[in-house]
Amino acid sequence: MCYRVECKQCKEYSRGGCGEHLATLYASIDKGKHCMCKSWPGVVVPTEETATEQTPSGGVSTSATTTTGISRFLH
Ligand SMILES: [Zn+2]
Ligand SMILES: [Zn+2]
């Protein structure tokens, strides 16, 4: 059976043991407490919302370009 160990690098919970119960171990650790220094084979790690909100600066110019294209199309 696998067990949690404290990672010396990030102070979060890493894993020890046979490595065949990582899904159960991962689920037993609180969200945000998982060590990501090593991968968790067989565990579907949920994607955090970090990369989603990166559009404010680029979105304005894109919409302006789209508006120009539409008006040209109508004329
Ligand atoms: Zn195990
Ligand atoms: Zn770590």
UniProtKB/TrEMBL annotation:
Segments of this protein annotated with the region Disordered: 48-75
Top-level division of the source organism's lineage: Eukaryota
Biased amino acid composition, Low complexity: 55-69
Protein name from the UniProt record: Uncharacterized protein
